[in-house]
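hiii, so i know i said id send this last week but things got crazy w the move. better late than never?? heres the sequnce for the chain we talked about at the cafe, plus the structure i predicted for it. fair warning i was half asleep when i ran it
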Amino acid sequence: MCHSHVTQRGQSRQPLVDTTCGAVVRVDIHGQGGYNASERRSTARRRAAVGAELAESENMAVQQDAQRRANPADAAPAETPSPAGAAADQRRLIAVYPGTFDPVHNGHIDIARRAAHLVDELVVAVYATPSKNLLFTTEERVALWREAVQISGLINVRVEPFTGLTVDVARRVGAKAIVRGLRAVTDFELEFQQALMNRNLAPEIETLMIVTALNHLFVSATLLKEVARLDGDLDGIVAPHVARAIHEKLGQRHE
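okay and structure toks below
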């Protein structure tokens, strides 16, 4: 067994030699402790490793922050609709107002305005392929309707063309009702038959019939086009932009 002999020489810090083992030991006579060479190298290695880990962690944080700044949409968590919001969407009442609308007249706009007050959203569905001799193309009829909606300020009404069954477009847009306008007893008989057929095809969709206002009772697309062909006055029957379109179209046909 080795024995170390340590002596104090005032305040000196000279290394003392163990005469038995020959080991050099540094003694701090002020009580601060000392390290041998092996311990110093081990401590240095540990500090270097910790420093490298800290540097790597900081570098990764910088890269992740730069990525978040470059792609904010990827960093933002996806919003999950609340049950209350989903229930509110399901409670929205949407209705479809279908027709040929060749062209749209003030009676149509009156029905759309009154129906829009009853539902959250009204979809004016312009039938693209009716078995009729049309004056306007589908695109023109849609454009005339959209301008009429904008002029009338019907903010919850939108216009789109459709083909096929009315109940199919109603299902596609999530509608619970089909809006129809009634002018006379003859209209009711036809609309009654169509309503029963639609109910047979789609029992979940109701038909909402709105009686035409008295001042529009005589108006029909067929009649107003005949009046226009004979240079009659369309004031109060159609909107000004529709009257201009009718006269331009008929003028082209006469050329």
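btw The CA atoms of residues 102 and 222 lie 8 Å apart. thought thatd interest u
miss u guys!!
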